[in-house]
Structures are given as structure tokens and as C-alpha cells.
Amino acid sequence: MRKLLILPLVLLLLATTGCRNITQAREPEQEYLAAAMGFDRGEGDLLEVTLEVIVFSVGAAEDSIESRLFSGTGHTVKEAVGNLSGEVAKTIVFSHCALLVLGETLSAGQLDEVFRFCAAEPNISISALVAAAPHAGKLLSCQSISTPITGYDLTGVLQQKRRDWGVGLSNRLYEVESGRLNTECFALPFFTVIREGEESSYTLHGIRIYENDLPSLTLNLSESAFYSLLSGSFKSGSFYFESDGIVYQPEVRRYSSKVRAARGINRVEISIRLILEKERYSMTDNDTLKTALERAAARFYNSVAANCRTDIFNLGKRAGTKGAPGDFSDVSIRFDVRERPG
Amino acid sequence: MQYNSLNLHRICLLSLFLFGVVINKLTDGSTGLLWLLIGTPALFLVMPPLMKLFDRLFGVESLKSVSSPAKKAGLAALYILSGLFALWTAYFTSFRYADFIASAMIPGIPVVWVQLLFLLVCLWLSLKDPTVILKIALVGFVAVVLSVLLLFAVSIPHFASPGSLLKSLDFGSLTDLNPDNPVLRFFLPLPVILVLFACLPGGINKKSVYWGTLVGAALFGLSMLQLLLIFDGEYLATLDYPYLSSVSVLAADEVFLRLDGLVYAILYVCFFLKSSVCLLTIRLLSQKFGRRLGYIITPACTAVIILCSLLA
């Protein structure tokens, strides 16, 4: 009797879980796995979608995996995907799509349509990364370096930067959507494309900040580190910055930040605590570094706040105030820099 | 097996029955968490008289043994109403879970087919001796608790600042009684399982109800906390199946690549137990009218659930 009970449950589990399912089972060569999607403003203000797909060959070794680019235009993403050029004869599966690239020419309405498509398409993972580029299609057509798929190459670069630089990019789809809902702003890693003869290569320039679904500010990698420090998304790693003609490169082991808002007045204090790696840090003493960091951070905050209309550092929520964005005119930044004990 | 020796099983069944609510959307997560913290101890205050009442009303073995016609009519009406409430709970539970399975796991298959397939298993379980469900609950409980704890542990690196969550908790919002309140959904099906316990030989065991509610609330609270710390409250409200979505965030981790199977296991166990408990309650209530009636009414109720889903 016990076997009778267990058997249908095991069968149900086998039939209804896993990557494939009983109703849509296909062999890899029967479908195109989308690795990355790019979105640009095409001709006639239509939305241009570039799709990088993984091409499998029957019985081929793993190193023979290659990618192919398709592009199509339409008023909506769905229409553009339906109009893909290049004789798409296979079903496109989005479940392996790791990267979404937004071109800088996209209008606010088109960007909203892209996010609406991503929310409605259940196969696109909410942890897919989002990045920005001057032209998404051109970025995806760059020569890949580490893997046969450019989209996966780009995500690898972002993960590496996150580890090495500690720049918490907060650019997974759900984080970007969350930013759009909360503060009407979000930050994306910004790639630029360099053309050398026939081939193009890419480089991570820094961060591009979007407000109300339109790009408003571009930061280089050094500024991006300060953006991460002030917005609470820094992880751990080293970054460099310049203050009073001296270049500093602290290696951060641990990071934490607190935002406090004084009641009744528009004063906000951002307290940042950095625990530095002892062995690798020997350039300057902690007090000098603390002063340099405070100066550079204040300079950075003022220059960014002057150009932005929304609460791009998410200070309102972190301080627990429900003030209108842009209320934070009097912000003091304090650093507590210590060395890792031992 | 003696029912008195199954108190641990009852704790497991009750906690998983309540925890089944984790499938739902979390429209008001931070307020829900506050409600859970306040609502659970508050419920413990009203529970003792409630359990006594349930024991007296549902502890009657058969309506035939009741001599007073007025009391008989009253109890009959109560049993029918309780049965309808259990049917309503079974319908919503099975529909929600079948919808999840049909949309997230086996897209393309009509919800009603999934519901039929799974409800047949639940029906089969509900027609067996109640100890079968209690034993499954014990085994399932271990698996669910381990999975919930593991998911919580691996999601810690993905948490946003707990300080922001604390700051976003608004005690003033407790006055807005939202019908979509996750905690209301959590406690609403509780009478169904209390009826079941009262119908079982030995009646309600107070200690197991307290512990079961507490463990269920702790599991639900932990998963709510996990979701609120991974996602922002406003974004969380947009997710259809937040618990599954949280795993797709964890799946990006380098160590644990596929954790969605754990969520499926949790949801499967909760689905089977919650729906089976509802159908078993219907069966035991029907048996108070006639010994064989339960074996006719319960399959009929399962057919009604399928019919309602077809018409919906």
C-alpha cells in the first residue's frame, strides 16, 4: 500500500519538475536559446530588437557552440520578435537569456514597453542582468573573448567587476524594476564599443543613471564606486579615486552604510564604514584616507545631486522618511575607515 | 495506532496546512509581517474557548446519537456550513496551486487538468484512514523545514539592508484592514483543521494546536522576511509567485545553481496536505450523517471543485 502511495507522487514529481516539461519537450537543436536581447530605437521610431541565440549542432562538441544574431523591428517587443530577420525556423526559448541591453536612443515609452515585456514573459528570469550601451545591437555584435557567446561574455565581465571592484551594480532585472517602482530611477553598467578595422570590441565604461526611464548621467568606474558606496550597494573589493592630486586605492574587505535623517529639517547623514584589507593596504594611514574619501564623496554627491531630479541614492527609503525625492539638499557624509584586525 | 500518540504528527500537519499560504501573492508584505507578529499571540488568547467549543460541537460521533431534534437540526446546519467552508478552502487552495503548476511548471496544459490529476491523489488520501495523512505530514514536515531553512540561509547574501526593512515597517498601516492581507489568508483556513482535529478520536489536543500554529507562523514569518529582504515591498507585490521568484534570484549564485526543486517540493507537500485535509474534513463531517455518506459526498465535492474550475 505504501508503494502505491509513493509511486504516483514520484511520477508526478518526475513529470512536472525540471528544466523541460512534458508538454514542450524538444531537443536542443530544435530550438534557439536566446542568450541576450538588445533593444534600440530603429527606423521610423520603431523598437528594434536584436537577439543573440545559441546555435547547437547535433553531436557536436561543446567548443563548436556558436551564436547568431537576429534583429527585427516592431511597435512592441513581441511584434519585433515576430518580425526577426534571417529566417528564424526554430522556436525561441528565453529561459537562458542572461542579459538585456538597452540602447541609449530608446524613448521612455519604449523602455517601459521593454520592461513590460520582460515582466509578462515568464521564461525571462528576474535575475537576468540589464546593461546599457550606445547601441545595443552593435554591442551584441562585438567579438566575444572568453566564451563563444557575447552575451555571456558581457555578464562574465560584470560579475568579475563586481568581485574585483566591489561595485554593486544592482542591475538584475528585479533590482532595476524595483528602482523604477520606488524612486523612478536606476543605474545600469554602461558598455562602449570600439571599432578596430573589421572587428569591434567592448569596454565597460562605468554606470549610466536613468531617471524616469531616460538616461540622465554617465559615471566612469571611479565615480561608479562612489555611487555604490553612497547608494548602499557596495560589496567588497578595491577601487581607485583621486583627491588633491593623490591617487588612492583602498581594498575594502567589509562595507556597511547607514542613513539617518534629522526630524523636521532636511538634513541627512550617510555613515559609511569600511574595513580594509591589512596586507595590501599600505599607501596612506587611515585618517588621511578617511579625509580624502569624505572630500571626494562630498564632491561627487554634490555634482551628481545637481544633475539629478530623483533620489538616485535611495536615501528616502534608507532613512525611513517619506519625503519627496530631491529633498535631500543638506547631506553630510562620514567615513569610518579601519583596518582588518589580525 | 492510537490518536493520542500522534500529537507530533498533528503539530506537523497543522503547521504545513497553515504554511501552504506561501504560494500566494504578498501584496502587503511589511504590514503582513507586523500582523503576523501581533496576530499569533492574539489568536492564542481566543483559542482556548474556541477549541472547547469545537470539541463540544464536532466531537459528536454521529447525529443519530443526539436526542433533541432542535440540537440535531442545529448541529446538522453547522456541519453543512463547515463542510461548505472546507469545500471553499479546498477549491481556492487547489485552484491556486494548479494555476501555479500550469503556468510555472508545465505551461500549455489547462489548469483544470492539473487540478484534476492532483485532486484525485488528494481524494485518494482523504478516503484513507486519517493516520495516513498524519504520517505523511510528519515526513513532509522534516523535508519542508529543512528546505525553508536552507533557502533562507542561502538567500542571506542577497538580502538588502535589514535596517531599511525595519524603517519601512509602519504600525499605523495596521488599521487598514485589507482583505488581501497575507495574515488574514494565513489564519482564515484554521477552523477547517480545528474541525478535523475535533472530529478525530480524542478531540483537539490543545498543546499540538498551539505548537502547530506557532511553527506554521514561524515558517511563514521566516519566508516573508526572506522575501521582504530580497525584494522591495512594492516590487514584491507585483510578483505572482514570490517564493518561486526568490529562488530564481538565488539560482544566480555560484554554489547553489538549481534550488527551484526545493520550492516545488515545499509547494507540493503543502498542496497535497492542505487539499487532503479539506477533503478529509468533508468526509468526517459527512460521516456524522451516515457512516457510508462520507465515501459518496467527498468524491462528489471533488467533482464540484473540478466543475467550478471548468466554469470559472
Describe this structure in words.
The complex is a heterodimer of chains A (342) and B (312). In chain A, 30% of the residues lie in helices and 33% in strands. Chain A is globular, with a radius of gyration of 23 Å. The termini of chain A are far apart. Chain A has 342 residues and is α/β, with parallel strands linked by helices. Chain A has 2 domains: 19-219, no CATH class; 236-342, no CATH class. In chain A, the strands form 4 sheets. In chain A, strands 1, 2, 3, 4, 5 and 6 form a 6-stranded mixed beta sheet that branches. Chain A has a 4-stranded mixed beta sheet with strand order 10-13-14-15. Chain A has a 3-stranded antiparallel beta sheet with strand order 7-8-9. Chain A has 9 helices and 15 strands. Chain B is mainly α. Chain B has one domain. In chain B, 73% of the residues lie in helices and 0% in strands. Chain B contains 13 helices and no strands. The longest helix of chain B has 37 residues, at 69-105. The radius of gyration of chain B is 20 Å and the shape is globular. The termini of chain B are far apart. The mean pLDDT of chain B is 85. Classes of the chains: A alpha/beta (342), B mainly alpha (312). At the A-B interface, helix 1, helix 6 and helix 9 of A face helix 3, helix 4, helix 6, helix 11 and helix 12 of B.
